[in-house]
Amino acid sequence: MRGGGSIAGVLAALVPLFLFRKGAMGGGDVKLFAALGALVGFELGISIVLNSFVVMLVIAFASVLYKGQALRMMRNVGTMLVNAFRPAAHRKVVASEALSWFRMGPAIFLAVCVQTLFEWRWR
């Protein structure tokens, strides 16, 4: 194991845990990230989390483009970003029907595969 022990590796799941607490991610994904971090250590655990989010971003954007909903998605993201800086009374509501959700498991799997390839390649 490189980059920290098992206990430190579990800390790689802190960002996913925060997103889970905000309702933006499932609990199973958080547990999977914690388990992966415990197996590979903190450094690789953080790398897997980051790579998973990048893969998820690509998958989500490709899906939205395929469905022809890219402009609506960008408008909703802009509204949510601006809402973060507005007082609660002045925030605009984004309808739940306008939001999309995706399973993160395939993105985590691809990120682990990519990370494994890079680790073997550079040794």
Account of the protein in words:
This protein is mainly alpha-helical. It has one domain. It has 6 helices and no strands. Helix 2 (14-21) packs antiparallel against helix 3 (27-40), helix 3 (27-40) packs antiparallel against helix 4 (42-67) and helix 4 packs across helix 6. The longest helix has 26 residues, at 42-67. The mean pLDDT is 87.
Keywords:
123 residues, 6 helices
Brief sketch in words of this structure:
By secondary structure, the protein is mainly alpha-helical. The chain contains six helices and no strands.
Characterize the biggest β-sheet: none
Number of structurally distinct domains = 1
Rounded mean pLDDT score: 87
Please report the distance between the alpha carbons of the first and last residues. Answer: 14 Å
β-strand amount? under 5%
Helix content: 55-70%
Spell the H/E element sequence.
HHHHHH
Low-confidence region ranges:
none
- The DSSP helix count reads 6
Question: How many extended strands?
Answer: 0
Instruction: Give Rg in angstroms.
Output: 17 Å
What is the molecular shape?
globular
SS-based class = mainly alpha
